Amino acid sequence: MSALLDVCIIGAGAFGAHHASKTARSRQARCVGVFDLDHTRAHALAEKIGAPTFEDLDEAIAAAQAVIIASPALTHANIARRALAQDRHVL
Description:
Radius of gyration: 12 Å
Largest sheet: 5 strands, parallel
Distance between the termini: 22 Å
Strand order of the largest sheet: 3-2-1-4-5
């Protein structure tokens, strides 16, 4: 079996919680962090899946091989550009 894909969840709302739950149960990936501008919400989600949180978006991106963007739609392009600039996969 190959190594697990390190994934960071960007956005800790309903979509982020869904993706975090699926990633936490995956045999191919593991959640290495959660980022949300609302740090309380990020910590609550991260605690549920046993992952750390990040207070800086670029640090969150750097910690992973891929990011799942689950933030409000208007933020997707900026986050995707920042992740791609760090050579990360974007989902």
